[in-house]
Amino acid sequence: MNLLLTNATIINPSGQQTGDVLIQEGKIAQIGKNIVAPDAEVHDCHNALVFPGFIDMHVHLREPGEEEKETLSTGLSAAVHGGITAVCSMPNTKPVIDNEVFVKFLIDKAWEINKARLYPAGSITKGLKGEELSEMVSMLRVGAVAFSDDGSPVDNMQVLRRALQYIQPFNKPLILHCEDKSLASDGAMNESETSTVLGLPGIHAVSEEASIAQSIEVAKYFGRIHIAHVSTAGSVELIRFAKQRGIAVTAETAPHYFTLTESSVEGYNTSAKMNPPLRSEIDRRAIIEGLRDGTIDAIATDHAPHAVDDKHVEFNNAKFGIVGLETAVMLTMEILVNQEGFSLEKIAKLWSESPASILGVSGGEVKVGAIADLTVIDPKYFWTVEPNRFFSKSKNTPFTGFQGKGAAIMTIVNGQIKWEAKNGR
Question: In the annotation, is 302 catalytic?
Answer without folding.
Answer: yes
